[in-house]
Amino acid sequence: MNAILNADLHSHSTMSDGLLAPADLVCRAHANGVDLLALTDHDEIAGLAEARAAAQGLGLRFVNGAEVSVSWQDQSVHIVALGFDAAHAGLRDGLARVRGGRDARARRMSDALAAIGIRGVYEGALRHAGNPALISRAHIARHLVEIGVARDVASVFDHYLVRGKPGFVDHEWATLEEAVGWIHAAGGLAVIAHPGRTRVSRAGMDLLFARFRDLGGDAIEVVSGTQCGPQALEFARVARRYGFLASRASDFHGPGESAVDVGRAERLPAGLAPVWDRLV
Ligand code: AMP
Ligand code: MN
Ligand code: MN
Ligand code: MN
User: Fold this and answer.
1) Residues with Cβ within 8 Å of residue 209, at least 6 apart in sequence
2) What is the pLDDT of residues 167-220, one digit of tens each?
3) Which end of the chain is more exposed for a tag (fewer CB within 10 A), N or C?
């Protein structure tokens, strides 16, 4: 087995809020020199078969993935699942339940925006959703950019879609315990996604890491394309302290939208145990 030089274990397709179809994402990863890829659509595994077939055609190693939405202390936390059996009924049912809440949430966000005079957001966002079951804030943001409410997706989030802003609504996702339980039952590894983006205090993060470790959680994203570069050293220390494996992720959603392209995140800092050693 060749050494893994360029693992990217977090990416999105049109099955959730990515901009490329699963096979197109795989082609781009291959062109960018990725040699181990996970597709990790939000709460959804419907893109895995297409991605795996495309990867096989290109000789690219592929790992089943999903990014599970979790509620943790009034925040949403994302747990990436890697290397699971995609036919496992418990995991499939769990993801279906989490997905199932998205439509009503999107309608409530749309109602909240209508209350400040921005109408038709639900219908507009659905036109951006490749998979209507997976309507996300990213689709709402793209619609609001399209109708000229803000100049780009990032500023839509800042002004409308985060806690305290007019389009934000509370939502109950899975619990941390459920997410880790489903992933392990299906034979996968559980990874805390982009810990640098979780809006909780340092003490709150320590509680999250300790709880995740106690539940048997496996890894954290030390490097993520959606957290700032110097945070890698901070999360390398977290990985060592808690005994977590280390993951590397672009969290690529699409050209022109994501700051870091698939396969182009920074390398892991030295001295960590890479999660992909358990996946190949
Ligand atoms: P949801 O799962 O519906 O809450 O949507 C979360 C998704 O919105 C993330 O996976 C990103 O794709 C996108 N997102 C969240 N925050 C931002 C941000 N500040 N800028 C751009 N996209 C964001
Ligand atoms: Mn997303
Ligand atoms: Mn995420
Ligand atoms: Mn993601």
Assistant:
1) 192, 220, 238, 242, 244
2) 999 999 999 999 999 999 999 999 999 999 998 888 999 999 999 999 999 999
3) N
Instruction: Give first-to-last CA distance, the chain, whole Å.
Output: 9
In degrees and rounded to multiples of 5, residue 67 shows phi and psi of -115, 110
CA-197 nearest atom, ligand 1: 16
Q: Is 253 in the pocket of ligand 1 (CB under 6 A)?
A: yes
- Tell me if 61 CB under 6 Å of ligand 1: no
